């Protein structure tokens, strides 16, 4: 969804709905106009439907088509009213996704043994739950772990190439000696004894 669009720009206000229609029922009915992002049924203090709902679409075109096509149509012996929702200043609250940590009970009827997607009160039957999206943080963490594993594998598989390193040193030393010979000056060099002592010896 385009982040520049306010929820009211892609949301349809529906009224005079049958009280028996659930969140999942409305999702099924209004999905024919486009991808539905969120369905919110207005309920009273006893969690009973007031016959009013907000249908949020992925794009504005779907919302406009829905409001024009569904306005004045009859549904469950009621003539519903549809229009583009007006922003009352609480659009930021509306767009927030609700989380239901308790998966043991249905939030539609409050009974145990099923979730709202398979609630017996759904007038139009059960609905297939949407696929869960992988969180970006988890994906990023996984990519970092894979990179660390690859890097570790590379480090373990590569050993220092001492032969090549020695060849470079010998080459540089040969160049140095060649330059010294060109001056026809034979100098004595001092080098450390190979037995790790403090004694020094002369070399030709």
UniProtKB/TrEMBL annotation:
Ranges for domain RRM: 10-87
Compositional bias annotation for Acidic residues: 145-162
A GO term, aspect molecular function: RNA binding
SMART domains named in the record: RRM (SM00360), ZnF_C2HC (SM00343)
An example Gene Ontology CC term for this record: U12-type spliceosomal complex
Domain CCHC-type, first and last residues per copy: 106-121
Region (Disordered): 118-172
Protein's name according to its UniProt entry: Uncharacterized protein
């Amino acid at each position: 969804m385009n982040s520049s669009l306010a929820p009211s720009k892609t949301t349809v206000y529906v009224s005079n709905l049958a009280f028996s229609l659930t969140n999942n029922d409305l999702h099924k009915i209004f999905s024919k106009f486009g991808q539905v992002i969120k369905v919110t049924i207005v309920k009273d203090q006893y969690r009973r439907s007031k016959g009013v709902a907000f249908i949020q679409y992925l794009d504005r075109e779907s919302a406009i088509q829905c409001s024009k096509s569904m306005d004045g149509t009859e549904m469950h012996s009621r003539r519903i009213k549809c229009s583009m929702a007006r922003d009352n200043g609480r659009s930021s609250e509306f767009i927030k996704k609700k989380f239901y940590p308790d998966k043991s009970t249905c939030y539609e009827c409050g009974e145990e043994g099923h979730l709202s997607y398979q609630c017996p009160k759904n007038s139009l039957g059960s609905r297939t739950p949407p696929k869960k999206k992988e969180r970006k943080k988890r994906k990023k963490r996984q990519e970092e772990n894979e990179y660390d594993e690859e890097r570790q594998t590379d480090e373990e598989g590569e050993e220092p190439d001492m032969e090549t390193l020695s060849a470079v040193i010998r080459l540089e030393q040969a160049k140095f000696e060649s330059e010294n010979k060109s001056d026809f000056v034979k100098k004595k060099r001092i080098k450390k004894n190979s037995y790790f002592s403090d004694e020094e010896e002369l070399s030709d």
